[in-house]
Specification:
Blueprint (H helix, E strand, L loop, with lengths): L1 H23 L3 H7 L6 H7 L6 E6 L5 E9 L5 H12 L2 E7 L18 H9 L2 E8 L7 E4 L3 H13 L4 E3 L22 E6 H6 L16 H15 L1
Parallel strand pairs: 2-3, 2-4, 4-7, 5-6
Antiparallel strand pairs: 1-3, 5-7
Helix pairs in contact: 4-8, 6-8
């Protein structure tokens, strides 16, 4: 009798534990949002020091194409290097927000739907083709998620990257870049392409798979082959 009672009590406690875990476990969207930093650029600028904590780099060229890295520098390492090289080789415009702290750059992450730094908004509004480069945490699989409202261009990029031997798929909902408020979709066509590149893939772009600021100038073959595929999609 005591054994049965003990078993009932144990099952009851276990059931309550599992139920509480289910109730309080955040959804995928909530987990994604919980890792974000400031709500807008005004809040960021009030708490961080330009040239000490962050720098903004941009170049306006005679081109319909704009490349974005709003989480560049130490926030999502490798994205700034990608857009600057691609822009310089093709005379594209670019904009990069660079976290330059020794550590803790993630606190300067503003989501794509809330990113409202004035120069970035101006550049996007002037562009017809906009591509936003991001990074997501995945240290094993080399992969790229592609999203955004410019479905035609996104499909071309996916095809060209796959032809070049890169792993690519459509983005999951939590960062698929399809919201109208996403900065990449605020151009003349109201549609852009958002690339989410895994940590492992970004590491493969640089010597010794090292994403440190000092090493990101040492680019490997993957870096150039990846950008050649993006370039081919834009020229197609």
């Amino acid at each position: 009798m005591k054994g049965k009672m003990l078993m009932v009590i144990t099952i009851g406690i276990l059931s309550l534990f599992l139920l509480s875990f289910y109730i309080f476990k955040p959804s995928k969207d909530e987990e994604y949002k919980s890792d974000q930093g400031y709500q807008n650029f005004a809040e960021l600028a009030a708490n961080e020091v330009e040239s000490e904590d962050y720098r903004i780099h941009f170049e306006r060229k005679d081109s319909d194409v704009l490349l974005l890295a709003i989480h560049g520098g130490g926030i999502e390492p490798g994205t700034t290097e990608l857009i600057k090289h691609l822009a310089s080789e093709n005379n594209y415009s670019y904009y990069s927000f660079n976290g330059i702290k020794m550590s803790g750059n993630q606190t300067m992450h503003i989501t794509s739907t809330q990113y409202d730094e004035p120069e970035a908004l101006n550049l996007v509004a002037e562009s017809s083709i906009t591509i936003s480069f991001h990074g997501y945490k995945e240290e094993v699989k080399k992969h790229t998620y592609i999203g955004g409202l410019d479905k035609k261009l996104a499909k071309k990029m996916s095809e060209k990257l796959k032809e070049a031997g890169f792993s690519v798929s459509d983005s999951p909902k939590e960062f698929d870049g399809t919201k109208e408020g996403n900065i990449v979709n605020k151009n003349k066509q109201s549609k852009g392409v958002q690339l989410e590149i895994s940590t492992a893939q970004r590491e493969a772009f640089f010597k010794d798979k090292d994403l440190s600021a000092s090493n990101r100038k040492h680019q490997e073959a993957d870096f150039y082959e990846y950008l050649q595929a993006i370039e081919a999609a834009l020229e197609d």
